[in-house]
Design brief:
The chain is mostly beta strands. It contains one helix and nine strands, in the order E-E-E-E-E-E-H-E-E-E. The strands form two sheets. Strands 1, 2, 5, 8 and 9 form a five-stranded mixed β-sheet that branches. The radius of gyration is 14 Å and the shape is globular.
């Protein structure tokens, strides 16, 4: 399993956000490097997003929410959601959940 996984839920419809593009990026002094890019599955999850281990430092999950809402013919205020986080020593698995609506979102570390 990847060190970083995610789950996206559409809080308006009460359903998983299926087919939403998610990009894992390394953020450092040299800029941004893409580590992996996937789409959420039928449960709104990405369980294989990058390797089992990552170098210590800052990373970002970028969710392509504008494209996803446009495919559903629904308006949104946010063309993307970017969640920046740190990978530290002894941190363990990082499961980052996004609760999504057209005009709001929240995120938290799940299990």
């Amino acid at each position: 399993m990847s060190l970083v996984t995610t789950h996206v839920l559409d809080t308006v419809l009460g359903l998983p956000a299926t087919g939403l593009k998610v990009r894992l990026e390394r953020v450092d002094g040299d800029g941004v490097q893409i580590v992996d890019e996937r789409k959420t599955d039928s449960e709104g999850r990405v369980l294989e997003l990058g390797p089992e281990t990552l170098a210590l430092g800052a990373y970002r999950l970028t969710f392509e929410t504008g494209e996803w809402f446009a495919q559903q013919k629904r308006p949104t205020l946010y063309p993307e959601v970017a969640v920046t986080f740190d990978v530290g020593e002894e941190q363990g698995h990082l499961h980052l959940t996004l609760l999504l609506a057209p005009f709001a979102y929240s995120t938290y570390r799940g299990t």
